[in-house]
Amino acid sequence: MGIEPEVFYAAIHDIKTPLFTIDVIFQMLEMKQNDMIESGIMTAEFFEDYLYTGKNNCRLIAQIIENMHDVFMIGNDKISFRRASCDLRMLISEVADVFNFYMLSKEISFNTIINGQDFLVDCDGIKMKRILINLLENAIKYTELKRTSPKTIILELFENEDHIIIAVKDNGIGLDSSNELKLSFEDKNRSFSDWGIGLSLVNNICNAMNAELIIGNNEPEGTKVEIILPRK
What we know:
Radius of gyration: 19 Å
Distance between the termini: 41 Å
Strand content: 15-25%
Largest sheet: 5 strands, mixed
Structural class: alpha+beta
């Protein structure tokens, strides 16, 4: 027995409401940051560590909620895509800016590499951002599990004659051969419980945009995820 759409939407709304309130509190603290430091109520270290951590976790929870919403919509054939000409160079730069400081706080070296000139594709830019955010969050998760340094994540954009390729590569714990087979996505009908909400959402959006998702080992260590998009 499935969840009725009205019940699901009501639950999503009920979760978003307190999350929004917490986010507003963080914004107010940020606005008062200088005054509170000067008065000695809070230290600069508090704002750098705890306030940022709190804001970031609010963002991650919001992302999970949006993922759940989109997976539910896809499962009920209700999700819509707004296709338009999208400059992936600009989109990649915007996403990288969001993650730069976060990676630094995790002591992960984060690099963006762009090779090529023409990165215009016909896609839903908002959904593409969601894909990149999910893939980078996965890369962070499995890179943090690595016990040795250095820890690195690379976001790469490049082109060939027929396609534009986005790659997220990390040197984290990687995949063994059995996991790599499980993540081949050859079976398009598998449920999100097999992959996790984030990767299922990425796979479904890629399918809708006629893009190919490839997940494998990043030699000599770690994981590499590639999204191969047809040119406009």
